[in-house]
């Protein structure tokens, strides 16, 4: 009997450990740690409201899920949480960033490297801010990308965006706070908070629709001219430098573009 109980307990521990090790569980844990940081900042006189997992309506009828939002008199701190491991490479011009991990050794002793691609978090946060401005009006937003302590930012460059580790977030927000003029009264901050609060209670159906929209975008829309896949890109030169747009994968043969 004792052996049976031991086996059952061992299986339960293994299952719980596996559940807590999924990417979704790790991501949620990172968001909770960041939320704790934001709540603790309030005790130092940096008052604000923290909201998690907000589903903000977009112009096209879909939603934009914001990981964490810190609403203050200094503006809206829009925070995208990333919990990747390994070396992180990326900038604000690439469609994807890369996480590089040591993958062991090959049979002849050569080191193997595993590379994982993920969507540019700068662009992702820009889309969150765009949705917020569509919903609230021309608000003042501060974009912050936060990585966990299990990674090392090796070659990450982004203009007008703050990228930091989770353990440096409080210090970063305090520095931004001290260097930023007051933009909103306490009453305005509370009004914004009350308007956004209902967007945190998304139903299971709404969340499923949100995930489906993301999946459809990842599959890629078709170019109306040649049938190729439309790819999200960013203008590098000219008066539209920094703006995102959809261009045909078959460029330069096909020069079709569409605004994001």
What does this structure look like?
By secondary structure, the protein is an alpha/beta fold. The chain has two domains: 2-202, no CATH class; 220-260, no CATH class. The protein is built from six helices and twelve strands. The strands form three sheets. It has a five-stranded mixed sheet with strand order 1-2-3-7-9. It has a four-stranded mixed sheet with strand order 6-5-4-8. A hairpin with a 2-residue loop joins β2 and β3. It is globular. The model is unreliable at 8-27 (pLDDT under 50).
Low-confidence region ranges: 8-27
Write down the overall mean pLDDT.
79
Output the radius of gyration: 21 Å
Distance between the termini: 63 Å
What percentage of residues falls in helices of 4 or more residues? 25-40%
Order of helices and strands: HHEEEEEEHEEEHHHEEE
- Tell me the quaternary state: single chain
Q: Please state the overall shape, judged from the principal axes of the Cα atoms.
A: globular
The total domain count is 2
How much of the sequence lies in strands comes to: 25-35%
Biggest beta sheet summary: 5 strands, mixed
Number of DSSP E strands: 12
For the largest beta sheet, what order do the strands appear in spatially? Answer: 1-2-3-7-9
Please work out how many helical segments DSSP would assign: 6
How does the helix and strand content classify structurally?
alpha/beta
What's the short story on this structure?
By secondary structure, this protein is α/β, with parallel strands linked by helices.
